[in-house]
């Protein structure tokens, strides 16, 4: 269950909670065959532990809010390119 990874597509910079694509791939390779669902990058494991403590309804609300805000930022960015 990955979180964010810094790639050209995401336009994110590597940080404590956002590994580089190469770093994440290295961690993933070491986890192959260990579990059906895994969070191979160690900071993602910390976040996954915290997320699992939240009630489902709160988690779903937070996820919806997060992605709606990201969508709105993307729409505004695309609109500003056409001005």
UniProtKB/TrEMBL annotation:
The keyword Oxidoreductase applies. One of its GO terms (cellular component) is endoplasmic reticulum. One of its GO terms (molecular function) is ketoreductase activity. InterPro entries: VLCFA-Steroid_DH (IPR051019). Keywords: Oxidoreductase. This is Uncharacterized protein.
């Amino acid at each position: 269950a990955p979180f964010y990874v810094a790639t050209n597509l995401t336009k994110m910079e590597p940080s404590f909670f956002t590994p580089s694509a190469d770093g994440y791939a290295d961690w993933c390779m070491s986890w192959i065959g260990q579990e059906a669902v895994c969070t191979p990058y160690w900071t993602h494991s910390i976040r996954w532990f915290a997320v699992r403590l939240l009630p489902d309804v709160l988690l779903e609300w937070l996820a919806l809010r997060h992605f709606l805000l990201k969508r709105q930022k993307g729409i505004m960015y695309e609109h500003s390119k056409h001005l």
